[in-house]
C-alpha cells in the first residue's frame, strides 16, 4: 500500500492526474534480484484434449498459477522494502484533474467506483483513494465487497448504502441522478427499494473480520481498520 499511495500522491500533487482505474491488476511488482518462474514453485500444469471437427484434436495447457514467493520471509516488511517495489501502471483512462468536467462519470470497474461518480456528483482525485481502499479489501480477503451480478445502474448505489450507510446530503444535492435512488431530504433509499433490500448485510469492517476468520487468518488490527475506513469516506 505504501508504494501505491506514494504513486497516487505523485500523480495527484505533482502531475495533476487522476488515474481513475486503480485495481489489483494495475499494480505490478518490481524485484531487485533475478528470479525465474521455477523459483516461485509453480503448480503443475493442467492439460485437456480438445476435439475440433474441422481441425482435428489438440492438447490445451491451462496457465498454472504461481506458488509461493522465492527466498525471503514474506512477512518481513524490511526485506520487502529492500528487495521489492510495487508500481501503478496503465494510465490509459487517466484524466487531468482540471478536465474532470469533460470526462464521463462511469470511471473504473463498477465494483471499485466511488459513490460520487456512481450518482454523477462532482468528483476529484479522491475517487482513486476510494478504489485503493476497496482494492486493499480485495487483496486482504480475495473476495469482492459486492455480490456478483449486481445491476450497475440500479443496485450498486443501494448496496453502498447497506455497507457504508447513508449518502451525505450535500453529495446528493450535487448529484444529477441521486434522487432516483435516495431522498434528498433524508439520504435514505426510496420506499420502493427499502422493502426489497436484504437486512443482513455486514458493514465493511465486520465483513473483513468475518472473512479473515473464515480463511483462518488473524483478525485485522484496529490500525488497519482505521486506515481502510479513512480511504472509504
From TrEMBL:
Record has Kinase as a keyword: yes
Record keywords, A-Z: ATP-binding, Kinase, Nucleotide-binding, Serine/threonine-protein kinase, Transferase
Lineage top rank: taxon: Eukaryota
Gene3D superfamilies from the UniProt entry: Transferase(Phosphotransferase) domain 1
Domain Protein kinase as annotated: residue spans: 1-233
GO molecular function: ATP binding; protein serine/threonine kinase activity
Coiled coil region boundaries: none
Protein name: Kinase-like domain-containing protein
Amino acid at each position: 500500500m505504501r508504494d501505491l499511495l506514494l504513486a497516487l500522491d505523485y500523480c495527484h500533487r505533482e502531475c495533476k492526474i487522476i488515474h481513475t482505474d486503480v485495481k489489483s491488476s494495475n499494480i505490478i511488482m518490481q524485484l531487485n534480484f533475478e528470479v525465474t518462474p521455477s523459483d516461485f514453485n509453480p503448480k503443475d500444469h493442467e492439460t485437456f484434449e480438445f476435439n475440433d471437427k474441422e481441425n482435428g484434436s489438440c492438447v490445451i495447457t491451462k496457465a498454472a498459477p504461481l506458488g509461493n514467493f522465492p527466498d525471503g520471509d514474506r512477512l518481513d516488511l524490511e526485506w520487502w522494502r529492500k528487495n521489492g517495489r510495487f508500481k501503478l501502471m496503465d494510465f490509459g483512462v487517466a484524466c487531468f484533474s482540471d478536465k474532470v468536467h469533460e470526462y464521463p462519470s462511469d470511471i473504473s470497474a463498477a465494483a471499485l467506483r466511488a459513490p460520487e461518480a456512481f450518482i454523477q456528483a462532482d468528483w476529484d482525485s479522491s475517487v482513486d483513494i476510494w478504489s485503493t481502499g476497496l482494492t486493499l479489501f480485495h487483496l486482504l480477503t480475495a473476495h469482492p465487497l459486492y455480490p456478483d451480478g449486481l445491476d450497475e445502474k440500479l443496485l450498486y448505489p443501494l448496496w453502498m448504502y447497506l455497507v457504508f450507510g447513508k449518502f451525505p446530503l450535500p453529495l446528493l444535492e450535487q448529484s444529477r441522478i441521486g434522487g432516483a435512488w435516495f431522498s434528498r431530504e433524508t439520504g435514505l433509499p426510496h420506499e420502493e427499494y427499502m422493502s426489497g433490500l436484504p437486512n443482513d448485510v455486514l458493514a465493511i469492517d465486520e465483513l473483513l473480520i468475518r472473512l479473515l476468520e473464515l480463511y483462518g487468518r488473524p483478525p485485522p488490527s484496529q490500525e488497519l481498520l482505521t486506515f481502510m475506513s479513512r480511504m472509504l469516506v
